[in-house]
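Why does residue order matter? Because the sequence determines the fold. Keep that principle in mind as you read this record.
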Amino acid sequence: MTLTHRNFSSTFPSPAVLPEWAARLVPQARPTSVALENLGATLHLQQLSEVSLVRAVLPGAASLPPEEFQRRTTELYLAIRDALVETSAPHPVRFWNCLPGIHAPTGPDTDRYMTFNAGRFAAFEKWFGGAKELGVAVPSASAVGHHQEELVIHALACPERGRAVCNPRQIAPYRYSRRFGPLPPCFARATVIDEPTPMILVGGTASIRGEESVHLDDLHRQAEETFENLACLVAHASAPERAYVSSERSEWLKRFRSLRVYYPRSTDLPTIQSLVADGFTNLASAEFVGADLCRAELLIEIEGAAEV
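Structure:
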């Protein structure tokens, strides 16, 4: 297994860098850049016949007032939609979001992640035709924080819409209670695609059961819970008619070919690398990325690509 370690160094502002497996989908496609002057943002589009990739960058996002940050998040997502619709691969199947100061307060009971979620939710209601469509239409995603000033959004799109996958062990994010913000996070736990190659694209997954963070302050148990959720997702994506059986976890985890592992505490990295090496025995690559996670109590988050 190849282990790629990235951190907050100036060489690798790593949470905002696209995972290597996704970047390899369009290696020879030159990006086309478009300035969105009304937003002060830039879109970079790469496209082939079977895949489109958009990178949207909003400089200075960390300094925006909450209402303006929310508005520009909505508009930036809609600009991504408008760019993709002109391509041969217009259907988003995976998003990566990197927020500046993800836990920075934006109100008495809200932080920047919650404000981002409100902006994304408003965009997806317009994009996919209303809240009732979110369960089948929204793609998988991750959202982590970095120590830079810009908001960075990557979108991977295919010719056909992917199949959204839920996790029976968890509540769908778009159905979270208001304890997690005025409007909920809006993404699928995983998405199954057929092109350019059949894959299960698993979004950011952590130690959450139902909608609650579990095993607080215990890295090993959080990792175990995360592994269980990942196995359940792959099982449900591959055989939705079967109930997930925990004793088969190791077999489902063998389906993963590429992982990206986020961790907020640098001292945890050796332990996390060891746990991942023991739990995932069939990987082609794994990246370990220092990042702030969407909930401050979480100690590990994992995303990746698995065989159908």
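The longest strand covers residues 91-100.
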